[in-house]
Amino acid sequence: MTRRRRYLLTLLLCVLIGAGCGGGDWSSGDRVLVAKFLYDSGMAQPHRYDVVVFKFPQQPIKGGVPKNYIKRLLGLPGELLAIFFGRLYHATVPVRQPSEDAKVDPTDLWKEEYLHAKTRFLHEPEGKAFWDKNRFEILRKPLDTMMAMRRIVHDNDHPAKDLEGVLPPRWAGAEPSAWKADGSHGFTHGGQGKQVDWLRYQHVLRPADWPVKEAPRPNDPDGALRNEEFERTYTARVEQIKKDRSKHKSQLITDFLGYNSYQTNFLPPKVYDPHNWVGDLMLECHLKVEKAEGEFCMELAKGVDRFQACWNLQSGECTLFRLGADGKRQELARKSTRLKAAGEYEMRFANIDERLTVWVDRDLPFEDGVTYPPPKERGPTENDLKPASLGSTGAAVQVHKLKLWHDSYYTLRGQLADAGEVVDWSKSETWQPLRDVGYKTLYVQPGHYLCLGDNSPQSSDSREWGTVPERLMLGRALLVYFPFDRGGRIK
Fold first, then answer.
1. I want to staple 86 with a disulfide (CB 3.0 to 4.6 A). Which of 298, 409, 457, 462 is the partner?
2. What is Dmax (Cα atoms) for the chain?
3. pLDDT (average), residues 140-153
């Protein structure tokens, strides 16, 4: 379908289904198709994880133009939520009316002050009592939402060219290892050995003091000399980094997002300080099996645990294991899969929301996944410096299209910081604050919804100004239809 036809079809849909197509002029941002009829007609109620559009409660109209927000709906009316280690938990509490002396205007219940469990509207039990008594349950995302909310950590097909030969590769086998790079961003294993041979990921990042590549100045009379001097300085600095082994260490994966940072020629770099360790990961690869022999494993680390999905390449049986702090290997589940013959397969293994999920091509042998109880001790450990691995035990295989993702992380509060203040997360002595993460409880008043942005460090959402009254809900966002290069379904 041509772009013109797609555009005309979208406009026709807007008319036929009563959907909103955004407000303001064409330069005001993405144009979003919104299904207003779903909520207006009562055909559907807002559901958790819907991406919704609503009138901004603090200022529904600005300058005569509707001020609409788009966020993900996460909290339902009468629900008590908690944010803890980037995850969302929920509990149902009895709906209680305010005391007669409360004198609360019902139209003010969306405000941020009524989110907290200490307010008179919740009475008792308060959020802390619920938390202390383990009354909360983790919210586990549907698989399509999990896929929509994942964030790329590293795509091995697209490494930074200026880091090649300077910093060690992200993926490497432990010496001695039969894993060999194949020259096309992949790895091969010949099936040697009777013990598992691991290909491990290390999160080696560009150092904070990496020199800035300044653009040439063609109109500057001294530009040629200036650029030549800059190139000499730049090359010398890169050589220093290459020799400094302290800058070649693996670090923890954090909730840093590149588009939350910026740098100019006149100001120091600014980033959202990545003080949140993200342990919920997803690993993908394209696997080619040469012979149906041996065992192939995918592994993800999180805190004191390492989780494995291991395939017997003769029978196709996949077994999920948990290796705890005591080093014992606990079997969690076992299923038959199609991975039992020579051939090519798309593999994916996720440890998100305290649930292990496996994909072999499009099959889900464990369906939505296998849940497990969280460990008593939370926070990063030395395991997390090698957070993802692929293993061969006598299996002749090739792996390509290696991608590592992390789940979206909900912050208690984001803070803007200078790049010079960024902590060196390769050093375990800096990790204690990451283990002492607190929690926050949020009560959603009846007739209201709690909405959060997926870009949690910077999002202006319910954590900042409060909930969304039902009367201000406009509809569910369906797709972006302009600009065309960003067009597509909203998940």
1. 409
2. 78
3. 96
Q: Buried b vs exposed e over 410-427: b needs ≥16 C-beta within 10 Å?
A: bbeebeeeeeeebbebbe
d(CA 382, CA 21) in angstroms, rounded, equals 50
Q: How long, in residues, is the chain? A: 491
Could you tell me which residue, 483 or 354, shows the higher pLDDT?
354
What is the pairing mode between strands 31-35 and 51-55?
unpaired
CA distance readout (Å), 332 to 124, 310, 318, 376: 38, 12, 11, 18
**Structure tokens given for 127:** 């959020």
Is residue 451 within 8 A of residue 468, CB to CB? The reply is yes
pLDDT for the residue numbered 424: 85
Q: In Å, how far from its chain's centre is CA 287? A: 24
Q: Which residues contact 414 (CB under 8 A, 6 or more apart)?
A: 272, 456, 457, 458
Q: Read off the tokens for 364.
A: 């889900």
**In the structure, what pLDDT confidence band is assigned to residue 119 with cuts at 50, 70 and 90?**
very low
Structure tokens at 120: 């008179």
Q: Give 373's pLDDT tier (boundaries 50, 70, 90).
A: very high
pTM of the model: 0.88
| Two structure tokens written together for 407 | 């789940």
Tens of pLDDT along 148-173? 999 999 999 999 998 999 999 999 99
